[in-house]
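Quick question, first post here. What does this chain look like in 3D?
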Amino acid sequence: METFQAVRTLLAVREYQDKPVPDEVILKVLEAGRLTGSSRNRQAWHFVVVRERETLRQIAQHAITGRYLDKAPLVIAILAPRTGQGPVDSGRAGQDLALVAGEMGVGSVFVTNVDTPEIRRLLAVPDDLVVQAMLPLGYPVKKLGRGRKQRKALSEIAHRERFGVPWA
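> Answer (accepted):
Ran it through. Tokens below.
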């Protein structure tokens, strides 16, 4: 799938088939995260792949958002440093993970507000890192979420030379 087409049409997936995602697919998705550009090439992210059903159940129970996380065959927790460019860089990596997953027919959604004490304990997250996001991955129940997105007009968010001067 062409990159712009994926950005334009891939929609969030929150319902998954009860079908495992093969290791070779997970490996390619993780490689996409590993290859993502980062500030000063620090590559300060870490990815924790969680497949154990009981751990997924507990993660969903303790997540502030994303109570459906245990419905996916796996979740990739994206960890980042508490300071510096960690949040931005890990977001970039998460987007690449999701785009490559979508290209391979695997649905996902970016879930934040998951850095709870219980989840940190479950995943043995060191004190200098935060659980920036979780990315549940799985084969969608419905056709892979491709469709028309509801987004603001470009003239509302893009400016020419100065804020307040619409681009278009």
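The two ends are 28 Å apart (CA to CA).
The chain has six helices and four strands.
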